[in-house]
Every structure is written in C-alpha cells, then in structure tokens.
Design goal:
Blueprint lengths: L3 E7 L8 E7 L6 E10 L2 H7 L16 E8 L11 E4 L2 E3 L5 H4 L13 E2 L18 E5 L4 E2 L6 H4 L5 H11 L7 E5 L5 H11 L2 E6 L5 H7 L3 E4 L3 H6 L4 E6 L7 H5 L2 E9 L11 H5 L4 E4 L5 H14 L5 E4 L4 H9 L6 E5 L4
Parallel strand pairs: 10-11, 10-13, 11-12, 13-14, 14-15, 16-17
Antiparallel strand pairs: 1-2, 3-4, 3-8, 3-17, 4-5, 5-9, 6-7
Helix pairs in contact: 4-5, 4-10
Amino acid sequence: MTHKTVHAYAAPAPKAPLERTTITRRELGAHDILIDIKYAGICHSDLHTVRGEWGHETFPIVPGHEIAGVVSEVGSGVTRYAPGDRVGVGCFVDSCRECDNCRAGLQQHCTGELGSVGTYAATGRDGEFTQGGYSTHLVVDENYALSIPESLPLDAAAPLLCAGITLYSPLARWQAGPGKKVAVVGLGGLGHMGVKLAHAMGAEVTVLSQSLRKKDDGLRLGADHYHATSDPATFEALAGTFDLILNTVSADLDLDAYIGLLKTGGTLVQLGAPENKLAVSPFALVQGRKSFSGSMIGGLPETQEMLDFCAEHGIVSDIELIRADRINEAYERVLASDVRYRFVIDAATI
C-alpha cells in the first residue's frame, strides 16, 4: 500500500469544534496492518486534549484511542493477523520495546527514549505526528493491536480499549474478588465499567456518586450498594469499610474523606486526571497504614487478558452510537455528564 489519504474528524485548534477533513496514513511496513475502522469511542481524554487542558499540543488533532475494526491489509512480515480479523487499538501504538517495562509487558510505562507513543497527539518513531481513531483507517504495527473476541460486538467493545482496561488493571492488581469490598467513585464512562468488572470478579461493589440519580442503573450494572457523597452521613456510615476505592472522576474531591472510608491497609486508586493538583494529608495515610496510588491503562498482555475476560463474562460498555456529524454535540453532552455511558462513533458515517 502507498500512503493512503483517509477521511477523519479533527480539531483544527484548541477548543475549536471538530470538523471533517482528510489525513494521510503511512505506507504499510513489513510488520504493519491496515485497519478498516468500524467504531471509535469518545473518551474524556479526547476532550481534555483538544481543549488544550493537558498542555501544549500540535494541531490539527484527530482524537480517538478506543478503536475497533477489521484488518483489511497486512505487511509482508505480519504473522499475528490476517485480513478479516477483528482487532482493537487502545491508547498507544508503539514503545521502545527494549526497556524493563516494555519487556515486562508494561508498554504504557515505557522508559526508553521513544516512550509510550500515544495513538494521537504524539510523535512516532518515524518522526510523524500520530492521528487517532476518529477516521476511517489506521496503520499500526501488528504488535500494538489487540484481538477482539468474536462474541463481543465491535461497537460496544471499542470503549474496552481505554475505559475497560483502565478499570480492569487496578482491579486485577489489587486482587478484587470474593471477600473484597470495592467502591467505585463516579458512575460515568469509567465508573460503569468498574462496576461491571468488579462484580464479575466476585467483589462486593459499592457506587459512591454525587447523587442517587443513577442508583437504578448502578444496581442494574452489578453494584450491591449505592450511596450519595453529597450526604455527609455517607462518610460516617461507611468509615473503615473498603479494601479498594477506585476514583474515576476528574474533579477536585476531598481525598482525605475518601481515604477515611478505607479499611486498615486499604488503597485509594486515582484514575481520573483533574487539571489541579491533588492534596492528601499524611495523617490520613499513616493512621491505618493506607495507600494512595495511581493507575492508568494496561500493557498489551493485560489488555488482551481484559478483552478475553470480558468475552468470558459477556461484558461490554453501555453505549450510545452516533453519527460522526454529531461529535461536537456529543462533546457538549460529555461535559454535562449526559451520556450513559460512552459515546461511540460509527466510522461508516465519517
């Protein structure tokens, strides 16, 4: 394949509405695959990036790192995939492959000179600026694509490539399962996946949300309990309850209050990425030997493990499928928390 011009939706400047355009995908290398993108999820990270909230970016930017599609062409040296295979691409498309983290399957934490190369708004090893999944096609190294099991519908599987793995990774690391009490802060695109996954792992699951507005949804998704954090009585009643709390919201919370909900030796894991610095009192941690940690996506092996787990348990994201010309409207609704629970773009409409 020669360089391929494809249609996409891009942000031309910070905070500017996304608009339809064309971009060029690289020529197929020996180990590259060409993906005919079928669906792309809309992640809050996309909004942060195109709004310039995470620092200086090079525009125009084609966002999208929750990508599901079908292989349409393969390079001469490809062994992992063949045309017709169902594949996904998540938050990164390359890494150095040689550092300790890459060798351990933790490519998201690559410490090599190349670093973990984001699916969009990053510089690849060829020096070119990466463009993401709000487009019709993507060229990616075969080693950075994941296999999507046949039992998972591609549209609802797309958000698993970011939202799914972002919640699966800490649940697996802190061994959520029978006998463990897990709380999920926020019932949005991330939070609803946390409830489904923790429930499937066998944990006792509690949702901590600002209000009880989504209580019926939370219980339907697998939560055992649902509490409003706007009610001070919640923090009194649940003090010392949880083994693990996953904070999925990108807001400035009183973290000491949430740490107070942990059992002795419990862990609060930060997943949301608010603009401002987070403050934690050392006394909140030292009294009860509690931990405040962070987590992001997973490496390639763990992401494949997550997809296989989801297939085994029939887990996908709850989605609202939209046409590409509704992306800007969807962004406004994400900002207003008006989506249950992930927008997914039908790439056929790009």
